[in-house]
From TrEMBL, chain A:
It holds the Pfam family GAE_BBS1. This is BBSome complex member BBS1. Residues 483-586 form the Bardet-Biedl syndrome 1 protein GAE domain. Part of BBSome complex, that contains BBS1, BBS2, BBS4, BBS5, BBS7, BBS8/TTC8, BBS9 and BBIP10. Interacts with the C-terminus of RAB3IP. Interacts with CCDC28B and ALDOB. Interacts with PKD1. PANTHER family: BARDET-BIEDL SYNDROME 1 PROTEIN. The lineage of its organism: Eukaryota, Metazoa, Spiralia, Lophotrochozoa, Brachiopoda. Gene3D superfamilies: YVTN repeat-like/Quinoprotein amine dehydrogenase (2.130.10.10). The keyword Membrane applies. One of its GO terms (molecular function) is patched binding. InterPro entries: BBS1, BBS1_N, GAE_BBS1, WD40/YVTN_repeat-like_dom_sf, WD40_repeat_dom_sf. The keyword Membrane applies. It comes from Lingula anatina (Brachiopod).
UniProtKB/TrEMBL annotation, chain B:
This is ADP-ribosylation factor-like protein 6. InterPro entries: Arl6, P-loop_NTPase, Small_GTP-bd, Small_GTPase_ARF, Small_GTPase_ARF/SAR. The gene is LOC106155199. The lineage of its organism: Eukaryota, Metazoa, Spiralia, Lophotrochozoa, Brachiopoda. It comes from Lingula anatina. CDD domains: Arl6 (cd04157). It is found in: Cell projection, Cilium membrane; Cytoplasm, Cytoskeleton, Cilium axoneme; Cytoplasm, Cytoskeleton, Cilium basal body.
Amino acid sequence: MTSQSTTSKDSIDATRDDGKWLSAFYDPVASLYTFSQCITLSDINADGDNKLIIADLGTGSYQMKLKVYKGTNLVSENTLIDLPTGVATFYMDQNEPRTPAVAVASGPYMYVYKNLRPYFKFTLPSLEINPLEQDVWNQVRDERIDVGVLREMLEGMRAEGTSLTVRSLRFIQLQAEDLEAFANQYKHTPLKKQTVITSLGTMKKSLAEEDAISCLVLGTESKQVYILDPEAFTVLSTMNLPSVPVFLNVSGLYDVEFRIIVACRNGNIYMLKRGTKNARSCIELNSQPVGLERMGKNIVVGCMDETLQCYTTKGKKLWTIKLPASITSMENVDHKSKGFKAVMVALSNCEVHIYKDKYLVNIIKTEDIVTGMKFGRFGREDASLIMTTKGGGLIVKILKRTAVFEEKDATAGPPVSQNIKLNVPKKTKLFVDQTMREREHCVSMHRMFQHDLYRLRLDAARSYVKALETSMNPVSTNTTEPLKLSAQVQGIGPTFKLTVNLQNTSISTASFNLLITFQFDDRLYNIHKTYIPVPMLVPGLSYAFETFVDCLSDKGISDTIKVFVLRQGRSVPIITAMISMPVSETMVVV
Amino acid sequence: MGFLDRLAQMLGLKKKDAKVLVVGLDNSGKSTILNHLKPEEAKTDIVATVGFKQEVFQTKTLQFTAFDMSGQGRYRSLWEHYYKECNGIIFVIDSSDKLRMVVAKDELDTLLQHPDIKDKRTPILFFANKMDLRDALSSVKCSQLLGLDMVKDRAWHICASNAISGEGLAEGIDWLTEQLQSMLKGK
C-alpha cells in the first residue's frame, strides 16, 4: 500500500504545536555547528543527571571541540584534532560507579574519553598496499630510479584504476620542481594506507540492559563495517559492503543475534547479520538517503527528493510521504513511559515534523533551520528534545507531561478542493434575448455569416498577394532567401537611433551580397547611412545594424521610414520593414 | 471534634490541625525540607519518594499534616487527588535547575487551573530551594520565571531556602502558619 499524502492547510492547522512542547532554553548564539550524529545524551558522571555531549565541527577546519553541557551550562570542552564524524557513549567495563565512556570518531581514529579525560586512541587497521606501488617507492629509496620515472609509473598505475596511498596521490599532484624534495623527505618512512571512519554506532554485547557493556560499530570509507571489543579495543568482526556506509542502525546483541542496517553512498540500503561477511542487498532507493531510522520491524528512510519512505526489513515498500521541504535531519522518538514511538524530521523550512507511522502528528516551528536533533533524557527530564540550528543556535524543548498525540491521519476526509465553488459565469437577460433571436432567424444569420466569410477570405488573399508582389513583409517567404527583419527606433529626437536586426533563418545556408537601404521623405529626415552593406549572414545569428536619423522639421510632423533588404544587383527588395517614426521633441537651445 | 478536644484547644493544649500539600518537581528538595521541619528524633535519611508520604510536624500554634508527594513525572498525576482536602500548598522549586523552570511553571499552571484549587483561596508558599548552589537563581528571578505576578486571586509568598541547613524555612513556615490560622479562624 503506497499512499501519497498532501499536506493541506487544514491538516497543518490541526497538528500545529498547540502547546505540546515547553520551550526550556533557546540560545541563538551558542555557536554549535553540528549534526545529529555528533550529539548524544548520557549520564557520564553517574549522578542521574544526563549531560549533553556535542562534537562541535567548529568552522570545519579549526575550533573542533567536544563540548559537554550540564543543564544549560557548558561544563567541559576538549579540543579535537580532526573533524568529528560521530559521537557515542558506551559502557566499557563493569566498574562501579557506572560511568560510560565517550567515543569520538574522527579521521582514522577513535578517541575514547573517560570522566571527560582522554583515555584511549584506537586506530583503524591499515589497509593493504599495492605491491607494485611499494616496490616503486623502494626503488626510489635505493636510488635506482629517479622521481620522474616514479611519477610516470604512479600515474600509469592510477590510470589502470589501482587505489594508491595518500602519499602517492599527493606526489602526483605536485609541480615538477617540488617532486625531488617531497620524495627525499618521505622515501625513508614506510608506506601506510589508512581509511577514515564515516559512521559510528553502538551495540550491546551480551545483555540487553541499559548499562550493559557495548561494542562500537564503525563504518569506514574502505566499504567495511568493524565491530570493536569494548575492553581490549580489538576488532571482533569485519564485514564488507559494496559501497561506503553513511548511516548505521544497529539492533540486537553481539553475542546472540544482531542486525545492522546500513545506508550507503550509492543510495542502497544493506543488511548485515551475525555471522555474515558480506552484506545482503535490501532496498534500492530512487534518491540518496539523508537519514535512516528503525521503527520496530520497519525502516524509515528520509531521501533527498523530499520524501519519507517506509520499508519492511525484507525490502518491501509500505508507504511514502511527500514532505513540504527538504530534510535536514532525522531523529527517532522513543518515549518509553508513554509508549510513544515516532520519527522526527527536521525540514529546511524551519519546521520539525513528527510522524507516527505515516501520520503527521505534530509540527514544531523553529526560528532557524535545524541541522541536528536528539530526543531523550536530558538533565532529569525524560522527554527532552535538543536541536542545533544552522546558525549555531541551541534549542531545548521539553515534552509536556500531559501532551497526547492523536494517531489519526490528519489528511483524512474529502480533499479541500471539493469545497471550492467553480467560477461559472452568470447569464443575463441579454443572453436569453440573443438566443431567442438566433432561434428565429437562424437561416438568414447563417447565410449572412457565410457570405461575409467568403468576402473576408477574398480580401485577405488580395492583400497577401499585394504584399508579396511589393515584398512589403518583414519575413521572407522565399525558400532561397530565408531572412527575418525587424527594426526599432530609440531616442526622443531630434536625433533618433535606428537599429535594424537581420537574421538568417535557414538551417545551414549562409546569405551573401545583401544590403540595407532606406526610403524616407528627405524634407523631414536625414539618415546618416542610407546604404549599409551586409556581411555574410551565418544561419541562426541575429545581426544588428545601426544608423542615426535626424528630424529636420520642427513642426512636430512624423512620417514612416521604409527599410529594404536587397540583393546586390537586383532592384526588387527581398524584405521590407515599415517604421513609423515618433514625433520629435523640439531642439532645446540652452 | 469531641468535647475534650475542644476544651484542650481552648486551653491551648492541643493545636489546630492544618493539612498542607508539598509539591514540586523531582529532586527539588521537598522531602529534605519536611525532614528539616520534623522534630530532631524523627529525622531520617532522604531517598527519592515513591508515590507519596505523610509527615507530621508542629509550629507554635499549628499542627501540620504534610503530604509529601513524589515529583517524578509518572507520579505527578497523583497530586490532584489531594487538592480537595488540603488547606495550603508548599511548592518547592530547584532554583539551580534553570532548564526545568518551564516544567515547574507548567505544573504550577495546571495546579492553579484545577477546579479543586481554582475556587478555593488556598495560600501557596514557594520555596526557591538550593539557594546555596553557585548557579542558583534568586527568588525574584524564580518568581519572574514562574509568572507568579499573574497569580492575583490568592495569597502567595516566595522565599529562598536551603533545605540542608534549614536557612529560610522558618520564615516561609511562619508566613504559612499565619495564613492558615486566619483561614481556619474564618471558617
